[in-house]
Design a protein that fits this description.
about 260 residues; mainly alpha; 13 helices; about 5% strand; elongated
Amino acid sequence: MWLGSWKNNLETPFGFRWPQDPIKALGIFFSYDSRKATELNFIQKIRNLEKTLNSWKRWNLTLLGKINIVKKLGLSKLIYNASVLVIPAQLIKETNSIIFNFIWDKKPPKIKKSTIIGERKHRVAWIPRIKSENVASWKIISNAALERYAGLHFLTNCNYDINTLQVGNIPPFYVDEWQMTKDSVRSETSITYEEVIWNNQKILINVNPVFYKSWFDENIIRIQNLFQEDAKFQSFKNFCYKFKLKTPFTLFFGLMLSRLLGG
């Protein structure tokens, strides 16, 4: 290929076949015609990205699922070329439109673009507001859906796994956000003395987490509430007396023999 001002030169020195059409080297197309180069390096890949995302539209993916598809099967087609070439601004705009139409099913976005592409720690900045005791209308859906687990405010303090909770026919957006909340608030892998008993993915009975509302109402919240001062488990009699609780012994011993507490 002729370089610089030689691009229209028709001579063939040394008898070489000097190409006039685009050539490909190290995964990038080079051409005298910038439009052809843009077509081969970007436009075709953007069309493939759009085709790939369209093929996934029929699946009922969660928000995080869609984002993973965009990253692994969509943007991966453009990353290399975008790292060595300048992308025309119009193509950036078109790519963003394709991606966010896929994520939100061509509906108005539920999260601002600047938020969804931001760092995870910024995307969950609303968590402190969830953990506050104040009553707000925007908490109604989450608290109603999680009433059987004492509401989202309490759940953020638990070592829960959203996949083990029965949240019913709740929009995937909320499920993703609840799991994101857990990942952001709870990072420890070991069990502590102050671990919350309820909704705990490591305290299981028949592979399900537990929540006894009558116990919760008596402020039995953490593992330490089950122990005596000598670091031994309380007896059933002492436990009921201490918390002025009337409860079947089966619940008490069932919890003590759970996967975590009883081995």
